[in-house]
Amino acid sequence: MSLSDTPAPLGPSPQGHSAVPPDGPAAALAEPTRQVSARWVTGLVLVNVGINAAFFGPINVFIGQQAISIDEPSKEAILSLATACGAAVSLVANPLFGALSDRTTSRFGRRSPWVLAGAVLAAVALLAMSGAGTVALMVLFWCLVQLGANAAYAAITAAVPDRVPVPQRGKVGGLAAMGQTLGILTGAVFGAVVSGNFMVGYWLCAAALLLSVLPYLFHRDDPVLHRGVLPRFRPGLFLRGFWISPRRYPDFAWAWLTRFLVNVGNQLTIVYLLFFLRDILKQEDPAVGVLVLTGIYAVMVMITAVAAGPWSDRVGRRKPFVIGSSATIAMAALIMAFFPVWPGALAGAAVLGIGFGAYLAVDFALLTQVLPLAADRGKDMGIINVANSLPQVVAPALALAAVTYWGGYRSLFITAAVIGLLGAVFVVKIKSVR
């Protein structure tokens, strides 16, 4: 793959619509108007399945089990360290690889080479992680998993505003959310079937990731960015491009902040789920408990995501769905806080799924409508994805503080609810999307 390096003018509109014909040399930057095919959407969904299995199988089960095998009394601190370091890598990797994919002039398209390369790197790192016997090696390999998986995720996320017209984005966002949820469920299934053998679990996650990208790569519909369409690559300008002025693009800033807050609340609810089931609910097999709760959550996410996304397309409104779903996520955390029993956990998982499914579908569509420039879709979606990754740094630290110093799991879940509700409040600040 190569990066565009020949100077040429490009005139994007203030709304991010490229001033080029859809069949011209800069077709990769044109605002999409043709609906994408079911085959393309299927490939997109499967990539999301694989990436999220690689993310959440380890986060929800395998890293915790590996931490117990290394030093059980320090398991919470080890889990928090590993997930926080990996998320710190993703903070840089997602916008960086998104920006690099924006300028990639490969004959296979802008996004596809990074989907493939990222998946291969993450899979190799997962295999290496399976044999890590120290905290240092476990953290190192998890950071490499995050590096590769975020390269693939940045590219596949940017493919949506590249190829999907606005009236179809709620539907596609809902299906992408379904893919994310299936990936989370797949990771939980792996955690249950390997019966504590986290080494086998990592191998299963690696295989799932590699297989998941193949259908998209064979039917990628990824237009080539020709040399000369974008200005010459200059490192200083490239780095300065990662700052998007909240004053100039306030809707983008508010959308980023609300996504960050809602994801912090969601991460706080689930980050210690394995330990909550093991230590508070006294589950004999907490990995199976994670699978049951994840299954309930997944079913509700898929139902609400595939319903809310197209519904928001039909009514032409996004914000009411985002506000309502954010409040529902906060309600799930309160259920876990005040009903710390198995039926309460089941109810909390269902409510969390209802809220997060609608949120994932509609907020994703909203975000694609506030991107500043067509030429920077990958970079800008990568910056948006930081709002998904940064909570993985913030939430483990908050969770450790809440469980250790602030009164335990009840304080943890109440904190999650308050932060999630703030996300619902700030959505009203977005002006350009109804």
TrEMBL record:
UniProt-listed Pfam families: MFS_1
Domain Major facilitator superfamily (MFS) profile, first and last residues per copy: 251-434
Keyword Hydrolase assigned: no
Positions of transmembrane segments: 44-65, 77-100, 112-133, 139-160, 172-194, 200-218, 252-275, 287-309, 321-339, 345-371, 383-406, 412-430
SUPFAM superfamilies linked: MFS general substrate transporter (SSF103473)
Cleaved signal peptide residues: none
Alphabetical list of InterPro entries matching this protein: MFS (IPR011701), MFS_dom (IPR020846), MFS_trans_sf (IPR036259), Sugar_transporter_CS (IPR005829)
Gene3D superfamilies reported for this sequence: MFS general substrate transporter like domains (1.20.1250.20)
Region (Disordered): 1-28
Alphabetical keyword list: Membrane, Transmembrane, Transmembrane helix
Cellular compartment(s): Cell membrane
Membrane topology label: Multi-pass membrane protein
Main location: membrane
Alphabetized PROSITE patterns for the sequence: MFS, SUGAR_TRANSPORT_1
Name of the protein this chain belongs to: MFS transporter
Organism: Pseudarthrobacter polychromogenes
